[in-house]
UniProtKB/TrEMBL annotation, chains A, B:
<feature type="domain" description="HTH gntR-type">
    <location>
        <begin position="2"/>
        <end position="70"/>
    </location>
</feature>
<dbReference type="InterPro" id="IPR015422">
    <property type="entry name" value="PyrdxlP-dep_Trfase_small"/>
</dbReference>
<keyword id="KW-0805">Transcription regulation</keyword>
<dbReference type="InterPro" id="IPR004839">
    <property type="entry name" value="Aminotransferase_I/II_large"/>
</dbReference>
<keyword id="KW-0804">Transcription</keyword>
<protein>
    <submittedName>
        <fullName>DNA-binding transcriptional MocR family regulator</fullName>
    </submittedName>
</protein>
<dbReference type="Pfam" id="PF00392">
    <property type="entry name" value="GntR"/>
</dbReference>
<keyword id="KW-0238">DNA-binding</keyword>
<dbReference type="GO" id="GO:0030170">
    <property type="term" value="F:pyridoxal phosphate binding"/>
</dbReference>
<dbReference type="GO" id="GO:0003677">
    <property type="term" value="F:DNA binding"/>
</dbReference>
<dbReference type="InterPro" id="IPR000524">
    <property type="entry name" value="Tscrpt_reg_HTH_GntR"/>
</dbReference>
<dbReference type="Pfam" id="PF00155">
    <property type="entry name" value="Aminotran_1_2"/>
</dbReference>
<dbReference type="InterPro" id="IPR015421">
    <property type="entry name" value="PyrdxlP-dep_Trfase_major"/>
</dbReference>
<dbReference type="InterPro" id="IPR036390">
    <property type="entry name" value="WH_DNA-bd_sf"/>
</dbReference>
<comment type="similarity">
    <text>In the C-terminal section; belongs to the class-I pyridoxal-phosphate-dependent aminotransferase family.</text>
</comment>
<dbReference type="InterPro" id="IPR051446">
    <property type="entry name" value="HTH_trans_reg/aminotransferase"/>
</dbReference>
<dbReference type="InterPro" id="IPR036388">
    <property type="entry name" value="WH-like_DNA-bd_sf"/>
</dbReference>
Length: 479, 479
């Protein structure tokens, strides 16, 4: 059982028992709880903190935990309704409408309730993460001299060199001086969008696309404009048209194992994307989030767009989190030309720099023998899981369709029968104990058809995948 | 000698010896360098990576390091000049002018060149950081079960509870559910500004104030509007006037040990700030960056503004970095009311969450016996250093004036004789081997008078502080 489940379960039990205590009464000691529930002190501490965060329990260091008073006299409820006016206030007649819709992102980040099978999500199940290698790398990083000192603002030099080699490939066309270490891929995307486009500007995105890029664009006051993708990646004829039609100076693209479809940008379209953007005087943000997630049976990978771009068209984004752990929030931006200074300025002003111990952990990890070993093991496991999911879908969801078998990444993009209500389906599926991701949030405008995105990396194993699809199929037959 | 110095020195030596090798020639092995320079393998690796980042050296894993070819045939220099047009493109007639000036922030973050005395900066010298406690906390955090799992988006519950107790104080008026864990104070400030004000809006800031808040506001398209401070903190008569004059809905304030002056907001003005903001329907961002930096002789600290605010006026920002290490990038936002959702949405969309190992490190550290011990030791040391700096200033800079002896924080704010050219002085001082911070970047508009901000926490010790001020005095007598 994973830590997060045991914490959630203990919190659930304690919550249900709280009525036995009067407000202000002391709960059993941590030690007593450890003995009674046979869990670790850390689990008890976390479960109590969860209840404290909910306002049900008050913890006092040294004294213990107490049932909270229903209305603590010390904190009279104030009147916060004025905030609704203040938060809607605009800068002037021409202000950009404000909307920060984090729902899609939160849905993909939040873990499932205990007992629910996760066919959603965008991270590896803990059993697929290189947990021991991470722990060893962190321990070694902590012993490195100067591990807590200020890192260079652009990132630790060894890590920049490593990213440059990975992004540039054998051509060596990406230099360490063109790399900025970032706090993961989402931060890198946000920094790129804020650097490249002023508030109010349009930004071209693939359709469907990763909801995090739509949310990041909107949160920065940008207007995402859809450009359709098919099994060969973005439709370059429509890309050219979209640049002509608007004043966009940025196109965000996932050329490799596109999220959600898994498609790979075809060779002739790669050249077209760069040519079209160059002619439009626009940047291509290459979100290369999945390069290390190729399945065992994937054909040889195309190089990054960044490695084939001499004119600074491409702003490259990548990250280690998908391949390792969501908490190894280390990624990179790579670019060339004046834009590099703009990216660096935004990153420094927003958040200073990436914590050095995490950067040193990444240096240790990518240099360890565990790194290539993990890559091989993961490639094999992802292939097995993808095949198991596809086979289960064929058995249990005969009315659905997977247009494209992804050679990399975590997801398959399942076309549902016309007229299916995705939201109702997702809600009914959750009642049956399975978390799935509706397709709607992947479209910046009207969706092409009803879809689900199913993840084969977040579940505990193949048996759980099969059981999840079985329950999904039963729900679909009902609705 | 600190690691960063030995890396910089080895890089300097290797750089000067590069001419001995022809382009493409192999440099001595890491092992040979370790033996010759009597440094650790990590230092050699970092020094080589520094040269690689400068494009002087190419490293190939397993093969070694080579002098770089002057113009690698594989990376023809492209034409990036089009970017200047693209980066100036605006969204429309009414677009917000774009300026991302990170110079002030970068100056305060970059370490000094080797051999230069640091009277600038905003972090503790490594010898004042709780290095062993940090290493122990990191090691314990790495062994916690689930250390690499996804944390709750709002932060690890134990840490939220701790922050709530620290921010709310004995009143208990700040609840864990009102706390978001952030990646340090600067990220928290940026999140607050982006959440509270739309692009183009004015935001009231103290004058002088911390350059990082001016830069963060401008990078988000906001217009910082100055409100003067004196020895009792912000001038509340002028604050009311500034709210009346404009349409600002946000005031950013450092009530405790204000940066750069060190002043503490007076009791009557605390109440006034909350009343004025409440009447204006505006938020107060309380940047409580220095609460743990009280000097040994400081009077009892006032509580946070957040703890005395029932109506959700205050958005509280705090951080652990100043008190520990710049790389423990863990801080908090605290708020109540609808604004909390807005803050959470911005943070999640921008950067997802704070890496769990760092949060667990913070939990371990604040719960360890080293925490109160460090607080006492630091309070004593900061007092000694402040007094040493003030005494040296009295001796060496008779023409300067320190209006306020700060009871906390890292800085004194030194008034220079009228007509002093701060930039010329800082440049001449650097030539004499001392890094100081000119006063100009602390003013959002015209400066009141020439100043320097001197830091007594970043130098190696009292002797170095005295030597720094001696050199500064000699330079001032010359110019």
């Amino acid at each position: 059982m994973h830590e997060r489940n045991s914490v959630a379960e203990l919190a659930l039990t304690l919550r249900s028992e709280l009525n036995r205590y009067s407000p202000g009464e002391k709960l059993p000691s941590s030690r007593a709880l450890v003995e009674r529930f046979r869990v670790s002190p850390v689990t008890v501490s976390r479960a109590l903190a969860t209840l404290a965060a909910e306002g049900l329990v008050v913890t006092r260091p040294g004294a213990g935990a107490f049932r909270a008073e229903p209305h603590p006299a010390s904190a009279p409820p104030g009147d916060t309704s004025w905030q609704q006016v203040a938060l809607s206030a605009e800068a002037g007649e021409e202000a950009v409408p404000r909307s920060v819709d984090a729902a899609g992102v939160i849905a993909s980040l939040a873990g499932p309730p205990p007992g629910v099978i996760e066919l959603s999500g965008g991270y590896l199940h803990p059993s697929l993460q290189p947990e021991r290698a991470l722990a060893a790398a962190l321990a070694r990083a902590g012993r490195r001299p100067g591990a807590w000192e200020r890192p260079p603002l652009e990132g630790v030099a060894e890590l920049r060199s490593w990213f440059a080699r990975e992004i540039g490939g054998p051509t060596g066309s990406v230099t360490p001086s063109g790399v900025l270490v970032t706090a993961g891929g989402q931060s890198a995307l946000t920094t790129a969008l804020r650097a490249l486009a002023p508030p109010g500007a349009p930004v071209l995105v693939e359709s469907p696309t990763y909801p995090g890029v739509i949310a990041a664009a909107r949160a920065s006051g940008l207007r995402p404009v859809p450009v359709p993708v098919d099994a060969q990646g973005v439709r370059t004829d429509l890309l050219a048209e979209a640049f002509r039609a608007g004043r966009a100076r940025v196109f965000v693209c996932q050329p490799l194992f596109h999220n959600p479809t898994g498609s790979v940008l075809a060779e002739d379209r790669r050249r077209e994307v760069l040519r079209i953007a160059r002619e439009a005087g626009a940047f291509v943000v290459e979100d290369d989030f999945a390069r290390r997630l190729a399945h065992e049976d994937a054909p040889p990978l195309p190089p990054t767009l960044a490695s084939e771009d001499a004119d600074g068209v491409v702003v490259h984004v990548c990250s280690l989190t998908k391949f390792t752990s969501p908490s190894l929030r280390v990624g990179a931006l790579a670019a060339r030309g004046p834009v590099l200074d703009r990216l660096r300025a935004i990153q420094v002003v927003d958040s200073f720099f990436v914590p050095r111990p995490l950067q040193e952990t990444a240096v240790e990890l990518v240099g360890s023998p565990a790194w290539p070993r993990h890559r091989r093991a993961l490639a094999a496991e992802l292939r097995v899981r993808r095949e198991a999911l596809l086979a289960a879908l064929g058995r249990e969801l005969p009315g659905s369709e997977v247009a494209y078998v992804p050679p990399g990444g975590f997801h398959v993009w399942v076309r549902l029968p016309d007229g299916t209500d995705e939201s109702a389906l997702a809600a009914a599926t959750l009642r049956a104990g399975v978390l799935v991701t509706p397709g709607r949030p992947f479209y910046p405008a009207e969706p092409a058809a009803p879809h689900l995105r199913l993840c084969f990396a977040a579940a505990a194993g193949v048996a759980e995948l099969r059981e999840g699809v079985r329950r999904l199929g039963a729900v679909m037959r009902e609705v």
